[in-house]
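Could you help me review a protein record that somebody else here produced? This is what I was given.
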Amino acid sequence: MRKFWLRLTDARLKAVLRALRDPGPGLGDLFESPAAAAAFFKPLRAGLRRAAAAAPGTPPASSQALAAAEDFVERLERVFSDLALHGTLPDAPVKEALLYLQRACGEAPALLFPGDRAGAFARIRGFSAGARKVLALARAAAEAAPSGFPQNLKFSSIYSGLDAVLDAYERCAEALFRI
């Protein structure tokens, strides 16, 4: 009951859940148009800033989750901004990793419900592990390929960026799980 009450009343938790949940459905649109990332993430960043300025008496775990959510949103936006900067669309490994992330985003709200918290956290970690495996294989292939060095270097940095996104998402999910 406490977690449900926190979910309803803690502005920081509301912002964190929105930041973790909302990118999931939007990732498909960002696949096609990475340049739209700034407009897509602007309301999420604004909501997180408002929540950070909200009631300072909120639990420390909410503050930890908020900081991790801010990091997650910034890093995910940076991945799509890098794709737009390089003028490329996500390749197959990036798409697959983002699909894993999309599934993990769908599990975020369950982290605050007692009946499914542990299961949701385990599924999030499983989706993250699947995405990391795809990215590790793609990064190894890009680094080993003798031709197309500039393109391989671009995608290698994008793979690293996505790995950092997954780290931030897992930190946020863990903070929510511990509330």
